[in-house]
């Protein structure tokens, strides 16, 4: 099974793709979709089209996305929610149902500690997947989302959530 993981952001979004065969995980691709800080509507379009292009090229079987982290800044949270919506829409456009995962669940699945920092997540991604080139933090987070889905999707299929 090929899984695409997404770490949403309104300025930069991480994307990670892995192949899963039994208990074996293999790095396929990681990337950043960078929108800059221009017109927000244009940034949403960049997110949608950028993820659509990656999905078209790599043809994943399944998609997972990190839930929106609610911060104290309501405006930032709303923008992040809209960015996440554009990314979910891109997945839906390509026929992929999206499994959401909380940041705590992603970190717990990859590091074993739900409050792990980005350095710990990045270290585990290097240890588990051996990517051919260094991963930016957001791309490592996206690969972690994909790994989390690989660990949880068999159980979710059993209980009928996917």
From TrEMBL:
Tell me the name of the encoding gene: ruvC
| Quaternary structure annotation from Swiss-Prot or TrEMBL | Homodimer which binds Holliday junction (HJ) DNA. The HJ becomes 2-fold symmetrical on binding to RuvC with unstacked arms; it has a different conformation from HJ DNA in complex with RuvA. In the full resolvosome a probable DNA-RuvA(4)-RuvB(12)-RuvC(2) complex forms which resolves the HJ.
- Keyword Repeat: yes or no? no
The primary location reported for this protein is cytoplasm
* Domain of life of the native organism: Bacteria
Cofactor(s) needed by this chain: Mg(2+)
Question: Per the record, what are the reactions this protein catalyses?
Answer: Endonucleolytic cleavage at a junction such as a reciprocal single-stranded crossover between two homologous DNA duplexes (Holliday junction)
Give the organism, scientific name: Mariprofundus aestuarium
Listed EC numbers: 3.1.21.10
- Which family, according to UniProt? Belongs to the RuvC family.
What InterPro entries does the annotation carry?
RNaseH-like_sf (IPR012337), RNaseH_sf (IPR036397), X-over_junc_endoDNase_Mg_BS (IPR020563), X-over_junc_endoDNase_RuvC (IPR002176)
User: Which Gene Ontology biological process is one annotated for this entry?
Assistant: DNA recombination
PROSITE patterns linked to this entry = RUVC
Residues that bind Mg(2+) 1: 7, 138
Checking Pfam families in the record gives:
RuvC
Q: What class of enzyme is it?
A: hydrolase
Task: Name a single GO cellular component.
Answer: cytoplasm
Cross-referenced Gene3D superfamilies: Ribonuclease H-like superfamily/Ribonuclease H
Task: Note how many cofactor molecules are bound and how.
Answer: Binds 2 Mg(2+) ion per subunit.
Provide the leader sequence positions.
none
Q: What UniProt keywords apply to this chain's record, in alphabetical order?
A: Cytoplasm, DNA damage, DNA recombination, DNA repair, DNA-binding, Endonuclease, Hydrolase, Magnesium, Metal-binding, Nuclease
Q: What protein name applies here? A: Crossover junction endodeoxyribonuclease RuvC
């Amino acid at each position: 099974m090929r899984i695409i993981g997404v770490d949403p952001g309104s300025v930069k979004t991480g994307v990670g793709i892995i192949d899963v065969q039994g208990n074996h995980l293999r790095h396929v691709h990681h990337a950043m979709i960078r929108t800059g800080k221009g017109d927000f509507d244009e940034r949403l379009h960049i997110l949608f089209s950028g993820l659509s292009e990656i999905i078209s090229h790599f043809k994943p079987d399944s998609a997972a996305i990190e839930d929106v982290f609610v911060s104290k800044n309501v405006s930032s949270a709303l923008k992040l929610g809209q960015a996440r919506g554009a990314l979910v829409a891109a997945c839906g456009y390509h026929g992929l149902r999206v499994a959401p995962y909380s940041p705590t669940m992603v970190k717990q699945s990859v590091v074993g500690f739900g409050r792990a920092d980005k350095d710990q997540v990045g270290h585990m991604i290097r240890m588990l997947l051996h990517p051919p080139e260094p991963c930016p933090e957001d791309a490592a987070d996206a690969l972690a989302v994909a790994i989390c889905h690989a660990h949880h999707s068999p159980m979710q299929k059993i209980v009928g959530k996917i």
